[in-house]
Structures are given as structure tokens and as C-alpha cells.
Write a structure and sequence with these properties.
Radius of gyration: 25 Å
Mean pLDDT: 95
Number of domains: 2
CATH architecture of the largest domain: 3-Layer(bba) Sandwich
Strand content: 25-35%
CATH class of the largest domain: Alpha Beta
Bound molecules: flavin-adenine dinucleotide
Number of helices: 12
Largest sheet: 6 strands, antiparallel, barrel
Shape: elongated
Number of strands: 21
């Protein structure tokens, strides 16, 4: 059987490697429109590639039917696969797994080696412009040729990370076979806020509990590192709630608790103690030693506390500001800055045990093009590996992959 995999990203490489090892597949062709495979992979995890996570609970995956992912995730252990193919890894206490080399290149190298199989052909710089089926044969059209296959695996990724290969291709190909897509939204992306206070904080990092609210209603909550930018907030804690920020309407506000380990009365007591100890210092030093200096000074501005000697400042007001630094949301950064696409091709029209389309036999899809996205922490690549592996098996278990 001849198989064509469209897209040489994480899921497509895994699908092609797996398909080439299936005994019934004579020839597998991997078509990648960029000059090399795995370009986005090299940018993942800030160049370190957070390839999976040891904490694999279902609540880390999202979409209109996230339970669709459960079977693929249960069938494949990426860590075991990568170890077997020569990658050494380290796990952080959070469960995030990285290559021991700390370089995404190592992950791609291992995949490139595994792609070297006699029945696996790679065509690079080769963009698929359309796919049609007649009888049992698929006709896959590129700028220069039309290839035929009995099976096609669409692994074109999502719209996120446009400069690294994200695009609409996969959605268009699958739509041409009658598949439907949800609205697409950027996820794992910076949240833009009113810049009155954040502007002065550009580059400052803080550990915070972040709550996203619409009026009194809590929409999402996360704890961890927050990084201030010129026009908003970024960092792991923000990424995890950004999918909610980009999909919900109404007036949204981010509430940052910047001293999350300390209750309001404790923070107030600490500040009162500071004022008693150093009454001659000015209010600017109220938070010195507790928060980044720029953040401490910004909180005073935010709480409208005049710069007076500490003996005359209002610790209760300052403590309240540190426990609830509220930033009105004005949007999120766009798809080109997002790490993943929330939404995609509806999974209900696919068989979760095989990744095959229910609308067109022989047509498979995997990875981000489908309406599944994961939290920050290695979950999106985990989904790409697991779904790519399942799609590559093509419903059979007769492999040595
Ligand atoms: C900056 C950044 C950092 C990230 N960091 C992490 C991380 O550390 N951990 C994590 O789990 N996830 C991370 N992600 C998300 C993760 O990289 C993606 O979810 C994952 O790569 C999706 O895999 P995929 O195979 O579905 O798509 P992709 O990896 O995007 O691959 C799709 C491929 O298909 C090709 N293609 C598209 N259309 C066509 C066509 N018509 N013809 C031929 N080829 C085509 C594209 O060029 C691309 O190479 C990050 C994403 C970004 C942008």
C-alpha cells in the first residue's frame, strides 16, 4: 500500500515513521512544504523542546470533545519511544520532560534518523495544494506533480506559529472532504492588558496566582511564573489561561496575587513591621526584599499611595494591592505569536481508535489540525506524537514501531 503523509512536523514525522514500519505499507511519502522537516520543533520550549509531561491527566487537554484524545494518549508512550530511539531525557519536578542535551535539535535528530527507512521517501519544499479521491485512490496535488496513494494522513498542524509553518492548509484539505471546523483562536499566548501599569514592568518576572474574571465570575485560575511585557503579561501561568481569554467575550480582568504564599493579614503585618523598623525610609522601599523593586514601586502607584516616609504610608492599602493587582484585558496576541491553536477540525467525524475519517475511508488526520489542544508543559507535542503514531498504524497493530 502507498501512504502519503502531508506535513513533516511533529505528528507527521511520527506518522510517517510508524507507517513505514507497518508490514503492509510498501511505500510512504512524507511531503513537507518547508525546506526541512520539524522546523517548528526546533523553536519549541525556547529551543529546549518540552517533548512531553509525566503528569498526563485528561484535564490537560481541551477542545469541544477532549475525551477524543484519551485512546491515542493511552496507546503510546512517547518517552519510551524516544528512549528506544536514542534520546536521553530529563524530567523537571513539574513533570516537564526535556532532552538531556537541553537542545531541541536532539529530538529532531532522533526523528530524522528514524525517518531513514528504505520504504520512506521525503519530499521537501513540496506544498500540497489539494487532495481528491476517486474510487479507492487519493490524488495528492503539489505545484509540480500529482501523487497517488491508497491512504492519506493530514498532519499539516494548526494556524498558530505562522512564521514557523502554521497555516490553513490542513483545515482546507479536510474541509474539501466535508469535515467541519470550529472557530480557531490563539492559545498559549501573551494576554494584552491596559498598559498604564505594565509598561513600566517590561521584563519583570513574578510568581503569582492569576485569576481571570468577567465581573464577579471566575473563568480560569492558574499559579506560576508571570512575565510582564510592554503591553501585557506572558509566561507559563498566563499561557495556561490564555485560551480562555481568547475565546471568552465581555469585559475580562486579570487579578494577580503577587504574594500568593502569604495571606492578606500576613502581608499587611510584614509591611507594618517594615514601617516600624525603618520609619525614615520612603514608601518606595515598602516592598523591598519582597518583590522586584520595579513591581513594588508600581504597586504603590497602582494603590495611589503617595511617596512619603514609611511611617506615614498605608500598609493595608499596599497589602491589598499586592494581593490583587487587577489588569483589564484588552485581548491576546495573534496566531503568529501563539504556540497552539484552540479549535480545529471536529473530532466527532473521526474514529478515535484509528484517527480515520468517518466521512472518507483511507483519510486520516493527526496533531494540531484537529480540535484538541493541550496545556503548556509538553502536552501539545505529546498529543502530536500519540495521534501521529495512531494515524501511522492505520488501524492495524501489525508493526514493530
Ligand atoms: C514557539 C512555539 C513553542 C512551542 N513549544 C512547545 C513545547 O515546548 N512543548 C509542546 O508540547 N508544544 C509546544 N508547542 C506546540 C507544538 O509545537 C505543536 O502543537 C506541534 O508542533 C503540533 O504538531 P503538528 O505536527 O500537528 O504540526 P506542526 O508541528 O506545525 O507541523 C505541521 C507541518 O506541516 C507542514 N505543512 C502544512 N501545510 C502543508 C502543506 N499543504 N503541504 C506540505 N506541508 C505542509 C508545515 O510546514 C509543518 O512543518 C510550541 C509551539 C510554538 C509555535
Amino acid at each position: 500500500m502507498q501512504i502519503i503523509v502531508i506535513g513533516g512536523g511533529a505528528s507527521g514525522m511520527m506518522a510517517a515513521i510508524t507507517a513505514a514500519k507497518m508490514h503492509q505499507n510498501d511505500h510512504v511519502v512524507l511531503l513537507e512544504r518547508q525546506a526541512r522537516v520539524g522546523r517548528k520543533l526546533l523553536a519549541t520550549g525556547n529551543g529546549r523542546c518540552n517533548l512531553t509531561n509525566l503528569q498526563l491527566q485528561g484535564h490537560h487537554f481541551h477542545g469541544s470533545a477532549p475525551e477524543f484524545a484519551a485512546f491515542a494518549l493511552s496507546q503510546f508512550d512517547p518517552l519510551e519511544w524516544f528512549h528506544r530511539h536514542g534520546l536521553l531525557t530529563v524530567a523537571e519536578p513539574s513533570g516537564r520532560v526535556y532532552p538531556l542535551s537541553d537542545s531541541a535539535n536532539s529530538v529532531l535528530d532522533v526523528l530524522r534518523f528514524a525517518l531513514q527507512q528504505p520504504n520512506l521517501e521525503q519530499q521537501l519544499g513540496c506544498e500540497v495544494t489539494g487532495v481528491k479521491k476517486s474510487g479507492d485512490t487519493f490524488f495528492v496535488k503539489t505545484a509540480t506533480q500529482t501523487l497517488t496513494a491508497q491512504r492519506v494522513i493530514v498532519a499539516c498542524g494548526g494556524l498558530a506559529g505562522t512564521k514557523l509553518g502554521g497555516g490553513m492548509s490542513g483545515y482546507q484539505i479536510l474541509r474539501s472532504f466535508g469535515h467541519r471546523a470550529t472557530r480557531l483562536a490563539p492559545a498559549l499566548v501573551q494576554i494584552n492588558t491596559e498598559d498604564t501599569y505594565v509598561k513600566a514592568l517590561k521584563g519583570v518576572r513574578a510568581d503569582a496566582a492569576v485569576t481571570l474574571c468577567r465581573g464577579e465570575e471566575t473563568l480560569a485560575r492558574c499559579e506560576g511564573q508571570v512575565q510582564f511585557t510592554a503591553n501585557g503579561v506572558s509566561g507559563p501561568a498566563i499561557f495556561d489561561i490564555s485560551r480562555v481569554a481568547s475565546t471568552q467575550s465581555g469585559d475580562l480582568t486579570l487579578h494577580l496575587d503577587l504574594l500568593r504564599e502569604y495571606s492578606l493579614p500576613v502581608v499587611q503585618e510584614l509591611l507594618e513591621q517594615r514601617a516600624r523598623q525603618f520609619p525614615q525610609l520612603t514608601g518606595e522601599d515598602l516592598f523591598t526584599g519582597m518583590l522586584h523593586n520595579r513591581l513594588g514601586r508600581t504597586l504603590l502607584r497602582y494603590a495611589k499611595i503617595p511617596v512619603l516616609p514609611l511611617a506615614q504610608t498605608n500598609p493595608a492599602q499596599a497589602a491589598a494591592a499586592a494581593k490583587d493587582f487587577a489588569l483589564p484585558v484588552v485581548g491576546t496576541m495573534g496566531m503568529d505569536c501563539a504556540q497552539v491553536t484552540a479549535g480545529g477540525i471536529l473530532t466527532g467525524d473521526f474514529n478515535d481508535k484509528t484517527m480515520e475519517s468517518r466521512l472518507c475511508s483511507g483519510l486520516f488526520a493527526c496533531g494540531e489540525v484537529l480540535d484538541i489542544d493541550g496545556d503548556c508543559g509538553g502536552y501539545n507535542l505529546h498529543w502530536a506524537w500519540a495521534s501521529g503514531h495512531l494515524a501511522g498504524m492505520g488501524g492495524s497493530h501489525d508493526s514493530d514501531s
